[in-house]
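Below: protein 1.
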Amino acid sequence: MLEHVLEDLFRDADMILHAGDIVSRRVLERLDERDVIAVCGNMDDYEVAGLIPQVRVVEAAGIRIGLIHGWGSSEGLAHRVASRFSENSPDIVVYGHSHIPFWGTVRGQRLFNPGSASMNRHGSPGTVGWLLIDEEEVIGQIVRLKG
């Protein structure tokens, strides 16, 4: 059911990014059908980790987007992610790991964490995110999925 909700939600997206924790090659193959740009996360099995990088920088509408999963505790994660891109910084960094949505600036770096599409540990519905790029302005939007 979640797969159908996500298909509908991202049907008209120009680009789909996945910030890791794909978990299995079967899921990765499904994402490849939509040309999803992904990085591996700490929950990905060895097959997935061997097929996709840990860090990527992609361009969309003239905006450079860094993509990374993240690591360690949720506390301080945004600072660690921002520091990873301190040299040759992209315009925005999309990350995951904490499953906690975030849109803001840390250490001068714009960061976006869409959360997690699956229910979180507390049983709340999952979230996904949109990055809307308009004339070199980037707007992050968190979308709460119905539970």
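Below: protein 2.
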Amino acid sequence: MIDLPQLVARFHDHLDFATREGVFEPTAFSLATVSPDGRPSVRIVLLKAADDRGFVFYTNTRSRKGREIAASGRAAMVFWWGPIFRQVRIEGPVTPVSAEEADAYFASRNRGSQVGAWASNQSAVLPDRETLLAAAKDVETRFGAGPVPRPPHWSGYRVAPEVMEFWYGREDRLHERVQYTLEKNGWVERILAP
């Protein structure tokens, strides 16, 4: 019987293969969320960690995705590595990472990205690009040459998998799909038609 550590290890095997094969931005994935009235939304974000606790990404918590996660508590992810004909799908509940994890990751970002996290009211309508650039300049002035702390509205989320699917591209569109679903007695494997 398979368990979550084995599934995460299989995911890392795929990610490592994509990296070795030179896939552009192999940690990029599509993140799908849904609004309280059922409107789906999807965007590309970058994976920052993956272990037995789940799959982690970081963002402005006041962004559309942040608001939708707060409302539903769930998300879906898709990693698509076209050049190697592989895909991994993940679905599950979402929880915030700890403040310590968020602080540590934020501190590892380059200064420009740190400034941008303060300057951008992500997903809000801007009158023009100059407004964003002026906000970034104000942040730079505010913090000077000192460290840029993590904004209170910026953190990470962890998707705890309840469904994982591994897709392998095959000839004649007879693709291989292996789905694992977390049920009462553990993970159940199913082969799905392409």
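The mean pLDDT is 96.
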